[in-house]
Amino acid sequence: MAGFGSISLQNTYRQLGEQFYSDQLPTKVLDPTLIRLNHTLASQLNLPVGVLETEKAIQILAGNSVPDDICPIATVYAGHQFGGWNPQLGDGRAILLGEVIGEDDKRYDIQLKGAGRTPYSRMGDGRSPLGPVLREYIVSEAMAALGIPTTRALAAVTTGETVVREMAQPGAVLTRVAQSHIRIGTIQYFSARNDLTSVKILADYVIDRHYREAVAQIVAKTGDGPYAALLTCVAEAQASLIAQWMAVGFIHGVMNTDNMLLCGETVDYGPCAFMDGYNPEKVFSSIDTQGRYAYANQAEIGLWNVSWLAQALLPLIDECEDEAIKVAEKILANYSLIFKQTYQQLLAEKLGFPGSNAEVDQLSLELQQIMAAEVSDYTLTYRALADCLAPESDRPYLNKIYSFPDAFQAWRQRWQALLAEQGVDLAIAHALMLSKNPSYIPRNHLIAEAIEQASQHQDFGLFNQLVDVLARPFEYREENKVFALSPKPEEEVKQTFCGT
Ligand code: AMP
Ligand code: MG
Q1: pLDDT, tens digit, for every residue of 114-147?
Q2: Active site amino acids
Q3: 246 Cα: distance to centroid of ligand 2 (angstroms)
Q4: Which of 75, 93, 267 to mutate to test the pocket of ligand 1 (most atoms within 8 A of CB)?
Q5: Whose CA is nearest to atom 8 of ligand 1?
Q6: Is the pLDDT of residue 3 over 60?
Q7: DSSP state of 485
């Protein structure tokens, strides 16, 4: 059997050398059942939906059968976890089946997450409970629909087996798609072993796969070498990514260097969550006891992570360490600038301004201060502000789903005055706000309920509904109102768990 039907998978990563992976077949499971297949993504990947839905393909997606022309691997990496160095990590529960070329001519990894033990499993069972699989499916696809770079969910299957965590839960496998799964921690693994040859092989591969044109442009423009240019690309991608997370109220929760992809996509949807009430110090993850990965710390942590990439690339940037450090420091200084510019631009657009400037930035800051003091729902506040610019007949949020506390009154007047002062066309501002402020985010209480219904009662109705609604996050529909509401106090989810 070749690949998925007539589609054969490649594996260019495996060709880089044995030091980067272990050959590893998935472990078979008892009784796979397809939960959901992502039709849109399948066609974007040139994978025929009709084929993926066949019993043969479902067996592949569950890890029960492996097409004979592919060699699945588990990749090795290291990483800083919560600030502490761990020299030996790797795909402990994920197996890379291979790569496909998408409609956009880009290369994508197809990986099975929860597919059994590998040499990097340590004490783990290599498996994934159903809850984290559904959670990753919902949130990663919501992020994609919000236009934020992310790994994707191609399919989810139940295994017909039980996975034991605090209690026994149904097992599942997620088919994860990424532009690649190479992490800051992958480069760190080889750098820490002083294996400069492998660092160079990886860096060249990442440039070729993700940043060929961008690196060439930076080299031509700045005179920097290709590895400094690679660092520039990754730093920019991380800065921009984190700004985008924060603009929608997303908290990643486990920003370890092994969870940061060099391609700039969001990965690892373990303890992540979207904020309901605005609180810059918000932490959901049960294991983040110090608040290291709190909402407002994310940009700084991104810089800390990219600094470790810089450290690993230093010998490639320049033979002279002092010179290499100078170049790296220049690039890292630019990270903060790009983060700030992107974040302020996004905040400006959320308020209907075409761009950021000192007055608009100040207005955004004041809004945040009021939201923090009132703990007002982050998503609803912005969406209801958009309604303020709409005709009375077209305001589904204002005073229906969300009413502004008095504390917002003076601020709202200043906002409207500044729109006028800066000559912003209100119809254009309204349209911009509707395209930047989602109605639907994957709210924790809904995810929790969808997981409970699926795990306890094998009822995937709410899961499917959530995925469908979140695929169009900016299109408010009255019949989907319940998905837009903030949780009632008794529904609020205060903590999330890694789910490993
Ligand atoms: P994470 O917290 O998901 O970033 O994972 C950290 C490390 O633990 C990685 O090396 C994972 O591959 C490994 N890991 C997580 N869950 C499991 C599991 N159930 N079985 C084996 N390894 C795991
Ligand atoms: Mg991880």
Answers
A1: 999 999 999 999 999 999 999 999 999 999 999 9
A2: 258
A3: 20
A4: 93
A5: 92
A6: no
A7: S
Span from the CA of 444 to the centroid of ligand 2 (angstroms): 20
Could you identify the atom of ligand 1 that is nearest to the CA of residue 90? 10
H or E segment and range at residue 368: helix 358-374
For residue 1, what pLDDT is reported?
A: 45
Q: Which of 384, 352, 347 is nearest to 476 (CA)?
A: 384
Residues 207-230: pLDDT tens digits?
Answer: 999 999 999 999 999 999 999 999
**pLDDT > 70? residue 5:** no
User: Which residues have C-beta atoms less than 6 Å from ligand 1?
Assistant: 89-93, 120-121, 124-127, 254, 258-259, 268, 270, 498, 500
> Is the separation of the CB atoms in 343 and 394 below 8 Å?
no
Read off the pTM. 0.97
Tell how far CA 190 is from the center of its chain: 25
Distance 411 CA to ligand 2 centre (A): 41
CA distance linking residue 257 with residue 308, whole number of Å: 8
User: Where is pLDDT greater, at 459 or 497?
Assistant: 459
Query: From atom 6 of ligand 1, which residue's Cα is the shortest distance away?
Result: 89
- Between CA 280 and CA 265 the distance in angstroms is 23
Average pLDDT, the chain: 96
Cα separation, 255 vs 246, whole angstroms:
14
How far does the centroid of ligand 2 lie from the alpha carbon of residue 97, in Å? 18
Number of helices and strands (H, E) in the chain?
A: 16, 11
Q: How far apart are CA 468 and CA 141, in angstroms?
A: 10
Nearest ligand to residue 173 Cα: 1
Question: pLDDT tens, 187-200?
Answer: 999 999 999 999 99
Measured in angstroms, how far is the CA atom of residue 296 from the centroid of ligand 2?
21
C-alpha separations of 266 from 6, 176, 254, 282, 368 in Å: 30, 12, 11, 19, 25
Q: What's residue 6's pLDDT?
A: 66
Q: What is the mean pLDDT of residues 231-247?
A: 98
User: What's the start-to-end Cα distance of the chain, in Å?
Assistant: 32
Separation between Cα atoms, residue 118 and residue 128, nearest integer Å: 14
11, amino acid identity: N
pLDDT value at residue 411: 98
Structure tokens at 108: 């994508």
Q: Which ligand is nearest to the CA of 261?
A: 2
- Which ligand has the nearest atom to the CA of 120? 1
Distances (CA, A) of 162 to 128, 414, 418: 10, 57, 58
Among residues of the chain, what percentage have pLDDT more than 90?
93
Backbone angles phi, psi at 471, to 5 degrees: -70, -20
State residue 60's pLDDT score: 95
Q: What is the CA radius of gyration of the chain?
A: 23
Apex 261 CA angle, 259 and 264, nearest 5? 130
Give, for ligand 1, the residue of 85, 121, 133, 267 to mutate: max count of ligand atoms closer than 8 Å to Cβ.
121
